[in-house]
Specification:
The complex is a heterotrimer. By secondary structure, chain A is mainly α. Helices cover 48% and strands 0% of the residues of chain A. Chain B folds into 2 domains: 1-30; 49-253, Alpha-Beta Plaits (2-Layer Sandwich), CATH 3.30.70.20. Chain B contains 9 helices and 10 strands. Chain B has helices at 2-17, 23-29, 64-73, 86-92, 124-128, 154-158, 192-196, 203-210, 227-234; strands at residues 49-54, 97-104, 110-116, 134-136, 142-144, 165-166, 185-186, 216-220, 237-238, 250-253. Chain B is globular and about 45 Å long. Classes of the chains: A mainly alpha, B alpha+beta, C mainly alpha. Chains in contact: A-B, B-C. Chains A and B meet through helix 2, helix 3 and helix 5 of A and helix 1, helix 2 and helix 7 of B. Strand 2 of chain B pairs antiparallel with strand 2 of chain C.
């Protein structure tokens, strides 16, 4: 028994630097917010940035089950919320997929060597969020305008 | 704040019918605005959602319900994989609701009806699912948790209504409100996202009403004085495959 | 009684490695086929929303029920105490495990999201017979391994009978479970019957034994081990009995279906008007798969010839695949009967089949995946008998039958 404790103690001690290393790494990174995303205009995420970096997967996963089984929608940890706020936009105002190379979710995950399959199914740009109708195709100018206007409108989903 | 939402919502609603889409309209449509607050508490068994479909009102040649469903759930964005025949694609693409035309063997009379997941009280698809991905939500909606669906298709074997579809191809385009992707099974979920946002109708029922046919009555089976129960009381109706005793949530009149 | 001596498979290395290379090639191609299906999605297969289970399931179900049947020989030796069958037990256990692994592999690789297999192994829905089957399969593998140990190790000897008995009951449950996967699909005309489960048990006996005999005859002939007429006669008589059993159950199945008036149309489809399915049923399942081997096995001369017996086994396996084709594909292709008294004129889009027979053409990747699984089973068997002592040195009459042995001594 005592021996086992000692062994585990040694093992954990040996693992400590490793563990610390990953944490330190997660803290060290940052600046992934894409300048052309809505997030760039705001100063805080849905939770303190520090917590987001470390625990966003747990938050999303919890949200996932409450939404799918409980029908609870539009709370602040929703996947669609992340995409909506963090998707960048190209010169013509078109949203860029968050999972595209260099974009918010992808850039950091690539850095951390994590592969997600969430975007097999989940939309990577805010599209068809409201129900009933897909937005009519609009001219690029209108789109650009829309995005500009968007930023100043109250947001149903994320504002408390 | 709340006020703001409502006005925006009404604006959006009013604009839906308008053909001209100007800059103002685009704002109304803009993707970030979700018209009503989403649910904050888990769904309960207080409601059991269902439908009555009056086949006598279902018009020949009308596919409004099907079109609305496709638009609502992003099924209109499906693309036939390159090199696949149209015939086979018709049987491989995802279909949540379909228009069925029947002829009575004796009288020769034609009956039309939309057919979708019947939202059984005792769903065979839920019984057979090995992982429990196929489940019935507390409010009676039968659906698939596509985070744990392994794509074995046993539920499709079990469904007596051919209501479910397997996604055979990678999905390029999808809506935020209706995630969908290769390798999982999906089917009608009575527009759960709408109900969860406080709306009281499905896309198909709404579209049917907009055409003036009023063949689909959506409502709460548990609400004794609600419009659905009233409608069920008023018209003789039955379940498809009543012999299986599944107690479906979707009922048909004039069949 | 003479001690049975087991020896590793002693064929020449070139032949052994050649065999492994061929099997390995088939496995690799099967794996590539699975990857291809996975990468593109199932649209590249013949499967659709009407026929949701295709060729992979034909192979998988066949291999799985054959696995449980292959254990039969060992059961007869241990559970029913037939001394003649004792030397055959080890190979029987090995083959059972190998076939099961092959079958499950095919089943898993055909999933829409095989990477989520861990979900299937960690979350159960206990009302699903499929879930129970996962337990039945893994339990079966564990039992067979334990059973092999009791056969091979002196220390295990005392447990041989209890474990053998348990394995026997387990495998009955396993086949019944596999049959029930179909038997409980109330919505489908073809499956809505309790007789499917016992029919699967008899099929498993027959197909398992046919595979077993082929492997036994091939591996013994390959390195010159004698197989006496006694053993051959016993085995082929047993096989013939099982085939007769299948025919009997097939008859009962169709009679019960014909009796229930609401299934008339389905019976008509399967037995007369179903095109390919009718052809496969009569020619594959009944004539080539049952009657022809029955003829060979009961023929006074042919049934003594190893090659003819092997041919009969081959026909039975072919018939088994044909039977699976009819049971699995045919009954899905037949439209769901939703509106009695009505003819379905339209059902969604033009090709969205409903009220009409769905079309299904097996695609090459599906076929290769199925063959790959079969090759996995044979690969495991070949390696097993090569490196471990599974095969008895001789199956000549005087070595297996205590009476003859006593006389000659």
């Amino acid at each position: 028994m005592a021996k086992a404790v000692v062994t585990w103690g040694i093992v954990s001690l040996m693992l400590m630097p490793l563990l610390y290393g990953t944490l330190a790494q997660a803290e060290a990174i940052g600046g992934f917010v894409v300048p052309t995303s809505k997030a760039a205009q705001l100063d805080r995420c849905v939770e303190p940035t520090e917590a987001m970096r470390r625990y966003h997967m747990d938050l999303i996963r919890h949200q996932r089950d409450t939404t799918v089984y409980g029908g609870i929608r539009g709370t602040k940890h929703s996947m669609s919320g992340c995409v909506d706020c963090h998707a960048g936009h190209d010169a013509s105002g078109e949203p860029i997929p968050v999972a595209a190379p260099g974009q918010f979710c992808q850039a950091c995950h690539h850095y951390a060597a994590i592969k997600l399959n969430c975007f097999d199914c989940h939309a990577t740009v805010p599209k068809g969020e409201a129900w009933n109708q897909e937005p009519e195709p609009t001219a690029p100018e209108a789109n650009w305008m829309m995005n500009l206007l968007d930023l100043h409108l109250p947001r149903g989903r994320v504002t408390p | 704040m709340k006020q703001d939402h409502d006005t925006i919502d009404q604006g959006r609603r009013a604009l839906l019918g308008a053909a001209a889409v100007g800059a103002a309209a685009t704002v109304g449509f803009s993707s970030t605005i979700v018209s009503a607050e989403g649910r904050k508490t888990p769904v309960t068994a207080e409601h059991r959602w269902g439908m009555l479909i009056d086949t006598s009102k279902c018009a020949d040649g009308c596919t409004a319900c099907v079109d609305a469903c496709e638009l609502e759930n992003g099924l209109n964005l499906q693309e036939r994989p390159h090199g696949l025949s149209q015939q086979k694609w018709d049987d491989q693409r995802s279909t949540w609701i379909r228009k069925v035309r029947l002829q009575d063997n004796l009288s020769g009379q034609i009956t039309q009806l939309p057919l979708m997941c019947q939202h059984c009280e005792k769903p065979p698809c839920v019984d057979v699912c090995p992982t429990g991905a196929s489940f019935k939500r507390a409010d009676g909606i039968v659906m698939v948790d596509r985070h744990i669906c392994i794509g074995c298709r046993y539920c499709m074997m079990a469904c007596p209504y051919k209501a479910r579809s397997f996604i055979h191809e990678p999905v390029e385009h999808k809506f935020t409100r209706a995630p969908r992707g290769k390798g999982c099974v999906e089917s009608c979920n009575l527009c759960a996202h709408r109900l969860d946002h406080g709306e009281n109708n499905t896309a198909c029922a709404e579209a049917c009403a907009q055409t003036g046919h009023q063949a689909i009555t959506f409502g709460d089976l548990n609400h004794a004085n609600g419009k659905l129960r009233q409608a069920l009381k008023a018209t003789k109706n039955r379940q498809i495959r009543e012999d299986l005793k599944l107690n479906t949530g979707v009922r048909y009149a004039g069949l | 009684m003479k001690r049975i001596v087991y020896r590793e498979w002693l064929i020449e290395p070139e032949r052994y490695w050649g065999l492994l290379a061929i099997l390995g090639g088939v496995i690799a191609i099967g794996g590539l086929a699975a990857l291809y299906m996975e990468h593109h999605g199932h649209w590249v297969t013949g499967m659709s929303n009407s026929v949701v289970w295709g060729t992979p399931h034909i192979f998988a179900v066949f291999l799985i029920i054959a696995a449980s049947g292959a254990l039969n020989v060992a059961s007869i030796g241990t559970v029913f105490n037939r001394t003649v069958y004792k030397p055959l037990g080890r190979l029987s256990g090995l083959l059972a495990a190998a076939l099961l692994v092959g079958g499950l592999l095919v089943l898993v690789l055909d999933l829409g999201r095989p990477e989520r297999l861990i979900v299937a192994l960690t979350t159960y829905n206990f009302s699903s017979i499929f879930s129970w089957n996962i337990f039945l399969y893994t339990g079966f593998l564990a039992l067979v391994i334990g059973y092999l140990w009791t056969m091979a190790d002196r220390k295990g000897q005392p447990f041989n009978r209890p474990i053998g008995m348990f394995a026997f009951l387990w495998r009955l449950a396993l086949t019944t479970g596999t049959g029930s996967i179909f038997g409980f699909l109330v919505g489908r005309q073809a499956y809505d019957t309790a007789i499917l489960a016992p029919m699967f048990v008899v099929m498993s006996f027959a197909y398992g034994l046919a595979v077993y005999m082929l492997v036994l005859i091939y591996s013994c002939t390959a390195d010159g081990r004698p197989i006496g007429p006694l053993i051959l006669r016993r085995l082929k008589n047993l096989l013939a009995l099982f085939i007769a059993g299948i025919l009997y159950f097939t008859l009962v199945y169709h009679l019960t279906k014909l009796y229930g008036a609401k299934y008339d149309a389905f019976e008509h489809f399967l037995l007369l008007g179903g095109g390919t399915y009718t052809l496969v049923f009569w020619l594959g399942w009944i004539v080539l798969g049952s009657l022809a081997p029955l003829g060979i096995l009961y023929h006074p001369e042919l049934s003594k010839d190893r090659d003819w017996v092997s041919a009969a086994c081959g026909l039975i396996i072919f018939g088994g695949l044909a039977a699976m084709y009819v049971i699995i594909i045919g009954s899905q292709a037949y439209p769901l009967e939703m509106f009695p008294g009505h003819r379905v004129l339209e059902f969604g889009a033009a090709g969205d089949v409903g009220g009409r027979v769905a079309s299904y053409a097996p695609s090459i990747p599906e076929l290769l995946l199925g063959l790959g699984g079969t090759a996995v089973a044979l690969f495991i068997t070949a390696v097993g008998i090569r490196v471990l002592q599974f095969l008895p040195e001789s199956l000549a009459d005087r070595d297996v039958d205590p009476h003859i042995a006593a006389k000659s001594a």
